[in-house]
Amino acid sequence: MTGYRRVLLKLSGEVFGGGNLGVDPDVVQGVAKEIASVVEAGTQIAVVIGGGNFFRGAELQQRGMDRARADYMGMLGIVMNCLALQDFLEKLDIDTRVQTAITMGQVAEPYIPRRAIRHMEKGRVVIFGAGMGMPYFSTDTVAVQRALESKCDVVLVAKSGVDGVYSADPHLDPTATKYDELTYAQAIAEGLRIMDQTAFALCGENKLPMVVFGMEPEGNILRVVKGEKIGTLVSAG
Fold it and tell me: Which of 17, 59, 104, 185 is deepest in the core (most CB within 10 A)?
């Protein structure tokens, strides 16, 4: 069984809210324990979190708000998630750094790729906050860009309520089949909505593999990091 040396974990903001608005401390504590187990196993890890438990720029735009301003609000929501995760990781004695794309010196370091790599080499968890620092970019795209720039081996996309990539929505279509492996070209040809198209294209062009897997049961993040075949592996083929 082969494992990964350095990984980028992408988490959705909705997970942090436990399905509600705001942060559910019990959920964040559970996620922190899983990340801690990865660090203790000797794998370097960085994290990108969404902000959907606070704000979604596209949805606020539909309600009449300026899209750019709505996206900036979303980026600030992401930082709140980052600080919550940092707090629970440090309670577990895991050294953590938050780096943000929007400067906010009192709570986080600025995003500096080489410094992020150095932190990971020292066994620290790096949490990337505030999205890309620019509107119109999803956290899917941020996750891939940060993984490429910090030289991660793989992007791990942790999902809640689904355990991989299916031919259709398994909640709506009982005949949907799960893929164990996929190529980026195949996923695009079949119109599978795994991540937004920009993120997907970036992964494909740079031959960065992605594993899409379920957060449940507990311990899945460590299993994927160790190289167990769970979820769906998407690669350049």
Answer: 17
> Is the Cβ–Cβ distance between 34 and 217 less than 8 Å?
no
Q: What is the pLDDT of residues 84-119, one digit of tens each?
A: 999 999 999 999 999 999 999 999 999 999 999 999
DSSP class of 50: -
**Residue 79 near residue 104 (C-beta atoms within 8 A):** yes
Q: Is the pTM of the predicted complex or chain greater than 0.90?
A: yes
Rounded to 5°, the CA angle 166-168-172 comes to 115
Q: Is 136 annotated as a binding residue?
A: yes
The answer to whether 137 is a known ligand-binding residue is yes
Element (H, E) at 127: strand 125-129
Q: Is 11 annotated as a binding residue?
A: yes
135 assigned to a ligand binding site? yes
CB 181 within 8 A of CB 188: no
Structure tokens at 44: 């370097």
**In this structure, are residues 190 and 167 in contact, taking their beta carbons and an 8 Å threshold?**
yes
- Amino acid sitting at position 196: D
Sign of CA dihedral 136, 140, 141, 146: positive
75: alpha, beta or left? (left if phi > 0; alpha if psi -120 to 50): alpha
